[in-house]
Amino acid sequence: MYINTKHLQILDVIKRNSSFTIKDISQLLNMSTQHAKAYIEDIYSELFNSSSKTLKSEEIIECIFFSKNAKNKLRAVQIFTKNQNIFYMLFLLGKYKHFKLAEISKELGITTRNLNNYSQDIKNILDFFKLNIETSNRGIDLIGSSENINQFKFYLYYKFLVEKDYLPKKLRDGFLYFDKIQNFKKVRKDIQKLIKILNSKNIIYSEFVLLSLYMAYRTSNSNEQIKNLSLEKSLKYKPEKLAFDIFNRSIIFLKNSIFKDISNETLHGIFMNSDCSNTPKNFLSIKTDDYIKHILPLFKNYLGESVNPDFPTILTSFIFYCKIKDVMFIDDSSFINLNLSHLVNSNFLKLTKDIQKILPTFSFLEILTLWYAYNEKEEQKENNILVFKYLNHSIIDTLIKEIYKKHNIKINDFVNIKNLNNYLKINKVDNLILIENIKISKKNIPFKNLFIPIVNYKKYN
Question: Which residues are CB-contacts of 174 (< 8 A; sequence separation ≥ 6)?
């Protein structure tokens, strides 16, 4: 038996949604019920050191739900998947430009023969970035321009940040060890300020995008650094639709922030209006209009004809994101952190399956975001504050409306958990409202942990 990332994901689903059946788990994680059953049997065997053959599925789930210290036990024996082996090797290539196969073989506990079997997979991924590998007396060398290598490193970091919660400890430690950030508090603070200036609510994981750009380009040897860039020369990086005052404020901020020492080419990524930041030309050839033409009617089929004007823009961002997930094999399971106990009473899963026929890498989180973004936005004002961690900014206004409809709680503002302390220093707050599994240490202020208000729309004919 081998415990991997999928086992940890299923464990979290069970721990957060004890009423879920095998069918619910399989639908949520897009796998067959047979595979889901095999995974929960593995989890049970590892936790209790005994077979579950005599137990029914619901009994196994109940035992897992009440188990103690389960996640630490599974993490202790978690192994690398094939995908994680491949990307660990790719990370070493991106970081050092070469590695010795014998050393990696010993480090990962895999024969060099098996590692050689990954060479075609590695070449296929590198091909998207116009990179290649060659064998030399040093071992395996990464061949390509510095620009393409930095672009490749950006996506490696981005993949790591999206997946980090379920990666094996060795893989997480490897990334953090090789790329230590001296003043992470300052980095995070500057990134949050930049997000606010850009109002980048349609970017998927905007904080991850900017942190990945910073990590990939901060060691650049380029003489053209942002701090030395004149406003006049910076105009060539300005997106056509970005207002000049926002662009000007962004440049001034960047020249005095943690981004000041990285190369000008990073600006291409910072000002892109989607997760295709610094996207290779392979991705730019995507005909998003074709996808929108097929996906939009699916939402109309469930929700009716009233469309939020911003919906096509938000949908375009997710289309690019799903293509990036496909190329980089990104396993985004952030939706597991949501309280999804009302899932079985909604049409979310049916809509998800319909869209996955068009874009297989669409996950429940994308559907959730788009579902709320489809509707017209409406502000609510009251004394309760929504605290969030993983939610995309583009859905929050509509989500606030649904919280009022489902729970009769009006919300007048929202804040990321990372900024909560500063927010409370300058704002009076009566209650904190949560719909994600977030630990709140503020004992002097009440908080309510609600089920996420999944809309139970009837199918529209």
Answer: 88, 91
For residue 386, list its beta bridge partners.
414, 433
Each residue of 128-160: b (16+ CB within 10 Å) or e? Answer: bbbbebeeeeeebbbbbeeebbbbbbbbbbbbb
Q: Is 225 exposed, middle or buried (0-12, 13-18, 19+ CB in 10 A)?
A: middle
Last residue in a domain, options 151, 178, 205? 178
Residue type, 160: F
Higher pLDDT, 417 or 310: 417
E-assigned strand segments in 128-240: 132-136, 139-143
Residues 325, 225, single domain; the answer is no
* Assigned token pair, 143: 């061949």
Domain identity same for 366 and 453 = yes
Please indicate, yes or no, whether residues 323 and 451 belong to a single structural domain of this protein.
Answer: yes
Maximal C-alpha separation, the chain = 73
Asked if 293 and 418 sit in the same domain, the reply is yes
The pLDDT score that the predictor gives to residue 304 is 62
Q: Where in the sequence is the domain holding 278, given as residue range(s)?
A: 184-282
274 and 260 inside one domain: yes
Number of domains present in the structure of the chain: 4
Are 47 and 88 in the same domain? no
Report the chain's terminal Cα–Cα distance, integer Å: 48
Q: What is the CA radius of gyration of the chain?
A: 23
Spatial separation of the C-alpha atoms in residues 110 and 105, rounded to whole Å:
5
Same-domain status, 372 and 414 = yes
Range in 20-29, 345-354, 387-396 the model is least confident about: 345-354
CA distance 43 to 64: 8
Mean pLDDT of 70-81: 93
Domain-ending residue, one of 265, 282, 299: 282
- In the 8-state DSSP scheme, what is residue 410? -
- Hey, what are 286's tokens? 């995507």
Rounded to two decimals, the pTM is 0.78
Within 179-287, residue ranges assigned H as helices are 184-198, 206-217, 231-234, 244-254, 266-270, 281-284
Model confidence pLDDT, tens digit, residues 362-416: 887 787 778 777 655 434 444 789 999 888 888 888 888 888 877 778 888 999 9
Question: 420 with 291, same domain?
Answer: yes
